[in-house]
Amino acid sequence: MSGILSICYLVASVTFILGLKMLSNPATARKGNLIAAGGMIIAILGTIFLYENDGKKLGNYPWIFSAIIIGTIIGTLAAKKVKMTAMPELVSFFNGMGGACAALISIIEFDYLFRENKMFDSTFFSHVVPVGHYLAIIAGTIIGSISFAGSVIAWGKLNGKIKDFTFKGQHLFNLVVFALVIFFAIYTYQSDVKVANIPFFITVALALLYGVFFVLPIGGADMPVVISLLNSFTGVAAACGGFLYNNKAMLTGGILVGAAGTLLTILMCRAMNRSLKNVLIGSFGGTAKSAVGAKGAQGGYKEISLSDAAMVMAYSKKVMIVPGYGLAVAQAQHACHELEKVLEEKGVEVKYAIHPVAGRMPGHMNVLLAEADVSYDKLLEMEDANEEFKTTDVVLILGANDVVNPAAKNDPSSPIYGMPILEVELAKTVIVNKRSMKPGYAGIENELFFQPKTSMLFGDAKKVLQDLLAEIKNV
């Protein structure tokens, strides 16, 4: 049986790798997801029916399958009902659940060892548990707990239920809490086996506290990076569980998630031209305030009518669309795709410019447009898009704000200074669709709105695009 189980784990590991590879391309992402899910089903069923410990199988099948059925129903309903605008918080919440599961695995393993050995008199925990085994337990516990608590806070901040919270000396407070986590983790291993559970659960509580205060001060504009980082934490915690039980599938999956999350975090930090330390300490977007009002030092802005916008776009040679969170809020991706098709029927070349941190999570805009069947070939990464803006007649910005703000290049006092942006101002005409002149997620004013070649087209993105479609068809 153990041989067959090893084959199941090997097959699962291969499907995880193939699935992750296929996720790198929107055309194969759905299939890759299904392949990886199929591998996970093989690993789960193999463990349930083939795993043996001292000749005994798992048993408890009613409990196991009841939990699987309940979890499957909840997960399916949540995924089907969630709006695209709420996808980031769903991802964050599910990631937190993964962290909690990884932490619980380690906690249960500790509790088992504690109960097995507490009958010994005056014996240190370190005398009955190998250091490598304990390191896997405590690392999974700490990292999983931080990921769980941090992800729940990130979920609350993304849906607006939890506000940014800072206080004087908060970073020092966080360092002290983390130092206490490490201290009690070491103290647990050196404690008398009869009372080792006390410092262990203090470690758990402190790790949860650290997870909360670790994410609380981080500003809204940095949340995509934080989600990616917490995702890598969950992967590492799961890998620790794989070490504990010598489970190849769990180990491989955890390593893949941890490595992918870490690489994505690094890439997103580069896209923002910021170090991870600066993201975690700088609170970008958390306390930033608008520098000027809509008619302050920047001067006034000008509006454009729907008919004028339609005329300009219909007689252009090239139009670039810059999607942002406003597009997601209005669920206007399908209307946007219709606009693309109508313009192309009139001989206009249409492409999309995608900033790496547009939206509320990594790849948010790519997923949004893929849902509307926008061709992946039309999606340009930031570097390629910036080259094309020079030959673009009209740029239509749909709800994007901070990722097109020239202050990132021109204003050393701006909190986003140095962040690479989409250089939309290089185009001949810029049309910005927003609900109002309120600042973006980073909380700072956008000087692009006040430039001579920029015109504002106010309103809900979906309604504006539908009206724009009607106007263009009549041109």
UniProtKB/TrEMBL annotation:
It is found in: Cell inner membrane. It holds the Pfam family PNTB. GO terms for molecular function: NADP binding; proton-translocating NAD(P)+ transhydrogenase activity. Keywords: Cell inner membrane, Cell membrane, Membrane, NAD, NADP, Translocase, Transmembrane, Transmembrane helix. It comes from the Bacteria. Its EC number is 7.1.1.1. The keyword Electron transport does not apply. It is a multi-pass membrane protein. It catalyses: NAD(+) + NADPH + H(+)(in) = NADH + NADP(+) + H(+)(out). The keyword Transmembrane applies. The chain crosses the membrane at residues 6-23, 32-51, 63-79, 91-114, 134-156, 172-190, 196-218, 225-245, 251-269. SUPFAM superfamilies: DHS-like NAD/FAD-binding domain. Residues 7-470 form the NADP transhydrogenase beta-like domain. GO terms for cellular component: plasma membrane. It is an enzyme of class 7 (translocase). The transhydrogenation between NADH and NADP is coupled to respiration and ATP hydrolysis and functions as a proton pump across the membrane. Belongs to the PNT beta subunit family. This is NAD(P) transhydrogenase subunit beta. It comes from Ginsengibacter hankyongi. The lineage of its organism: Bacteria, Pseudomonadati, Bacteroidota, Chitinophagia, Chitinophagales.
